[in-house]
Fold:
Amino acid sequence: DNLQIVEIFDPMQRTSQRRMGIVITVGIWHACRKQGCRRAMLTKIQNFIRGTNSMIYLISEEEDRVERIIASAAETTGAEPLQVYVWSCVQGLTNGQKVVAPTSDPVVALDHFLRLDANSLLIFKDLHLLVNGNPALIRQLKDAARVLRSSRRKIFFVSPQLNLPEELFSIF
Structure:
């Protein structure tokens, strides 16, 4: 059975619900300004980085806040800090202020990330807008999930809503 336990974490209540299916973390960031909430989310992200799953789908409208927490986790998880890359359909693939690959094509961006240093994270934005009706992207995501299982690289998909074809649920 390819189904996994789904954990939907609500930082406001500091509670989780478990269901079968895709791994999702839901953060109500604007209402979670207390240090305890941020620490709880940081711990969840650190646990994901240390774990064996290679991809996670984060649902949040506050991309900047999510990026800061992921960057903080990248610095504090493991013996050495992880490089953080960000891709959006407008900016392309970046590392800090440096544009690594100026591409609006998610398949090209994922391919480029897969060839990078083994100690890195990718924050992948806009997936909810691009995945449906894009067979090349669906295939690239499946292949990336397989390749990343044997490395320290992780991908965080940050979107304001869940929008995935059914066939991708098993890779998260």
